[in-house]
Design goal:
Blueprint: H1 3-31, H2 39-59, H3 66-101, H4 105-109, H5 113-139, E1 143-151, E2 160-166, H6 177-189, E3 194-198, H7 207-211, H8 215-218, E4 227-230, H9 233-237, H10 241-249, E5 253-254, E6 258-262, E7 266-270, H11 276-280, H12 287-291, E8 300-303, E9 320-323, H13 334-341, E10 347-351, E11 354-358, E12 376-384
Parallel strand pairs: 1-12, 2-3, 3-4, 4-5, 7-8, 8-9, 9-11
Antiparallel strand pairs: 2-12, 6-7, 10-11
């Protein structure tokens, strides 16, 4: 994005965040009527939680220590708290509006209404904690997706190809050494011929990745035909070149509007992410220009992070496109929104002669929580003839 666009986006997000937290603060303050001594502590915590993410992200650009990491983690979890607490409080407020027409709350609460409000607030907190805890556990346990596809092309004698693929790893403060090691061990256990990374390998700023030496784990990925990636929007949010340089220094070949012929058998084509135009000032290549010089009589696999304009890819000699980006909303109910935005928000679709797969992703962005779907590692088995 242009600097002005960043400022506008940041201002909108910060405004919404402050307003939502102000709403929760007011309603939480009211719920603590029976325990007034807790109220000042509650307000102090809400101020800390509201601004912890942005403060942590700013500070960790210049320092990376337990304080900045703690603020980042608190703020990341707090986004999930905001979502699920707000949904519940809104339902309560709808009930309060109905109570104006048909009084029923006082009948349920009994004579001690302040204590009843506290109990309702405690139930909201308990439900929120339970949902977020379950979502965090879910985010740590990726599923393996197995997909066998027929590709009616000759691959110079190669009959089958095992591809391990992931998208949206988001290496950084949240996806640190333990989760990175889990990713590497999971992929290596699949014994792939080739490993493909469909963008957003890094989560914006490369500083936390370097500080935690996450590249050391990436070097342990093993595939005889190599490891290839395309760029994602988060590589460019993090500045583009530093992130890409880091990946290439750690045995990952980043394809930027280029293709490579593997073992004289098949092509891997990597598209620049749509976000690149904000950093490089140059639009990415169109499909026809991108495919120029590629022998479409041989199998062709395309990596394109954002799954837009699928029609432009079909029937162009591309046999499989692997994308990510959507996270399928990551947290319920945002999957309903991504279903409206993208033709394929997750999973498989075939259009013309082209197979498409849109991954829910391996890591998380923002909250380390998944309540709308499972994280995943894909294992494709392509059969050539």
């Amino acid at each position: 994005m242009e600097k002005s666009q960043y400022i506008m986006f940041f201002a909108i997000v910060l405004t919404v965040q402050v307003l939502v937290n102000l709403y929760l603060t007011v309603r939480g303050y009211q719920a603590l009527e029976a325990y007034p001594k807790i109220r000042p502590w509650f307000i102090a915590f809400m101020v800390l939680a509201t601004f912890s993410y942005i403060v942590g992200r700013i500070l960790e650009r210049n320092m990376y220590n337990p304080l900045t990491v703690s603020l980042h983690w608190l703020g990341a979890f707090w986004f999930a708290v905001m979502l699920y607490a707000t949904l519940q409080v809104l339902l309560i407020d709808i009930a309060r509006l109905l109570d104006l027409a048909i009084p029923f709350i006082r009948k349920i609460s009994g004579p001690d209404y302040p204590r009843f409000k506290f109990i309702v607030g405690a139930i909201v907190a308990g439900i929120t904690f339970t949902v977020i805890t379950a979502g965090h556990i879910n985010a740590w346990h990726p599923r393996i997706v197995n997909l066998s596809l027929e590709v009616p092309k000759d691959a110079n004698g190669l009959k089958t190809l095992r591809i391990a693929a992931v998208s949206d790893v988001h290496l950084g403060t949240i996806i640190g050494p333990r989760k990175t090691a889990k990713l590497v061990n999971t992929i290596n256990s699949l014994d792939p011929d080739i490993i493909l990374l469909a963008g957003d390998v890094l989560d914006e700023d490369v500083g936390p990745v370097i500080s935690q030496n996450l590249g050391d784990s990436l070097r342990k990925l093993k595939a005889p035909m190599g490891i290839y990636a395309c760029t994602g929007n988060h590589e460019y949010i993090g500045g583009g070149e530093p992130s890409i340089k880091y990946l290439q220094e750690h045995n990952i070949k980043v394809l930027r509007d280029t293709s490579v012929l593997i073992n004289d058998a098949f092509y891997i084509v990597g598209r620049e992410d749509l976000h690149a135009r904000h950093n490089t000032k140059h639009p990415r290549k169109g499909i026809d220009e991108l495919m120029n010089g590629t022998d479409i009589n041989m199998p062709v696999i395309l990596l394109d992070h954002q799954p837009y304009h699928l029609d432009s890819v079909m029937n162009r000699g591309i046999d499989l496109q692997i994308s990510g980006h959507t996270h399928h909303g990551q947290m319920w109910p945002f999957g309903y929104i991504t279903n409206k935005i993208y033709e394929v928000s997750r999973g498989y679709k075939k259009k013309g002669d082209t197979h498409f797969w849109v991954s829910t992703g391996f890591g998380t962005w923002g909250p380390p929580v998944r309540t709308g779907n499972r994280p995943e590692v894909m294992l494709f088995e392509l059969k050539f003839n």
